């Protein structure tokens, strides 16, 4: 009897102990905390594929009812593809300290257009000082420059709100580095984008159909637009961005597709562009399927260092002769300012503002433009279908005539 009683008591103690441990694990999950992909539960190891480990850690963290953090420590980790999807139950952070490495071949991905994506998230933070390496070199060599949409986007944000991306690097993306669609109040702070100047269609940050996005203290050197701004973008602020190599900071191109939404409230300030093929520009396709508007666009305190086309408004944009240049753009541009733009241009055409036939640009202001041509010959400007308000602008840049002028190298054609 005594032995049976002892055994019964031991069994009861073991049951209570296991129940307590299970409850503790559930409580830990509910309480949030750190979810390191290299711990025993997830089993991620450097120089191996951690796709499954990353997905499992995210699933647990996203289910937590208090703030949680998924951690990828220092080291190089291979990721086939990853989808970080919400909504999550509490604020969540992905802290990438090491390097995540994409497959060299996009055909290995189930989604041919995206490698890493963040979807339907609120109060999310991406941080850690780590690198998203798209390994795009092989893809670039195979791309036809007239159809440079091949290859995957490194990082996509879709329907992400009230969130922060800071201290991360996007390296050698096969396509756009960072794509922002349908987001609200999303901030990029101290982000680095790096790819060779001849890498096709590798826009640094592309933003469309989003409201209240901020890009600040960011360094972008790539093969296409450092920042490109698509339709439906509203209340975008870009400050203290360095750009080069690249094609500059561009609103557009706009008007290529049907049902494009208006662009309004774009503020670009305190930025520096170095040896880029364009500076700050607005571009709309020469022929559009429907009318739209582009308004409240302001460029201020911009430094140009040996930039080819410093100030551009081009409503006859038609890369690779894909449209009818004789057609007139239906995108109405208004309330645009270029203030305190100074530095050097490597081509004689310092200012080019070519607006749509029959739809002149309105309320265009140029103030404090001071550009020096580094080559031989005279500095010039061109204005067509626009009568800008001008103050403190040197005569060669005063844009007072529609007469043809000597043009610099053509703007880069990639969309």
From TrEMBL:
It is found in: Secreted, Cell wall. Its EC number is 3.2.1.15. One of its GO terms (molecular function) is polygalacturonase activity. The keyword Cytoplasm does not apply. Keywords: Cell wall, Cell wall biogenesis/degradation, Glycosidase, Hydrolase, Secreted, Signal. PROSITE patterns: POLYGALACTURONASE. InterPro entries: Glyco_hydro_28, PbH1, Pectin_lyas_fold, Pectin_lyase_fold/virulence. It is an enzyme of class 3 (hydrolase). Gene3D superfamilies: Single-stranded right-handed beta-helix, Pectin lyase-like. The active site is at residue 247. GO terms for biological process: carbohydrate metabolic process; cell wall organization. Residues 1-24 form the signal peptide. It comes from the Eukaryota. Belongs to the glycosyl hydrolase 28 family. This is Putative polygalacturonase.
């Amino acid at each position: 009897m005594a032995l049976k009683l002892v055994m019964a008591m031991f069994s009861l103690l073991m049951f209570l102990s296991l129940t307590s441990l299970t409850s503790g694990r559930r409580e830990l999950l509910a309480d949030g905390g750190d979810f390191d992909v290299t711990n025993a539960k997830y089993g991620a190891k450097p120089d191996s594929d951690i796709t499954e480990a990353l997905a499992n850690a995210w699933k647990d963290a996203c289910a937590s009812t208090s703030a949680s953090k998924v951690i990828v420590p220092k080291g190089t980790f291979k990721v086939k593809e990853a989808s970080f999807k919400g909504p999550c139950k509490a604020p969540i952070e992905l802290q990438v300290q090491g390097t995540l490495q994409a497959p060299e071949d996009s055909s290995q991905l189930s989604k041919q257009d995206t490698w890493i994506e963040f979807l339907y998230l609120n109060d999310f933070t991406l941080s850690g000082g780590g690198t998203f390496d798209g390994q795009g070199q092989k893809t670039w060599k195979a791309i036809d420059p007239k159809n440079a949409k091949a290859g995957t986007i490194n990082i996509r944000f879709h329907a992400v709100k009230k969130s922060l991306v800071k201290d991360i690097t996007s390296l050698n993306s096969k396509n756009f580095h960072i794509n922002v669609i349908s987001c609200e109040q999303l901030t990029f702070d101290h982000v680095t984008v790096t790819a060779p100047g001849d890498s096709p269609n590798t826009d640094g940050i592309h933003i469309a159909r989003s409201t209240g996005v901020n890009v600040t203290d960011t360094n972008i050197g790539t093969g296409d637009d450092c920042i490109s701004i698509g339709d439906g973008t509203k209340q975008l602020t870009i400050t203290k961005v360095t750009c080069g190599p690249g094609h500059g900071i561009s609103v557009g191109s706009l008007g290529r597709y049907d049902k494009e939404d208006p662009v309004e409230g774009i503020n670009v300030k305190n930025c520096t562009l170095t040896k880029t093929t364009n500076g700050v520009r607005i571009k709309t396709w020469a022929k559009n399927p429907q009318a739209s508007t582009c308004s409240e666009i302001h460029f201020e305190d911009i430094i140009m260092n040996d930039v080819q086309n410093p100030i551009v408004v081009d409503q006859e944009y038609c890369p690779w002769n894909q449209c009818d240049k004789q057609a007139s753009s239906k995108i109405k541009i208004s309330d645009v300012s270029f203030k305190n733009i100074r530095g050097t241009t490597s081509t004689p055409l310092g200012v080019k503002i070519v607006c749509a036939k029959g739809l002149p640009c309105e309320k265009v202001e140029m103030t404090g433009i001071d550009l020096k041509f580094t080559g031989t010959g005279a500095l010039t400007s061109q204005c067509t279908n626009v009568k800008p308000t001008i103050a403190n602008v040197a005569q060669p840049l005063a844009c007072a005539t529609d007469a043809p002028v000597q043009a610099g190298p053509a703007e880069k054609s990639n969309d």
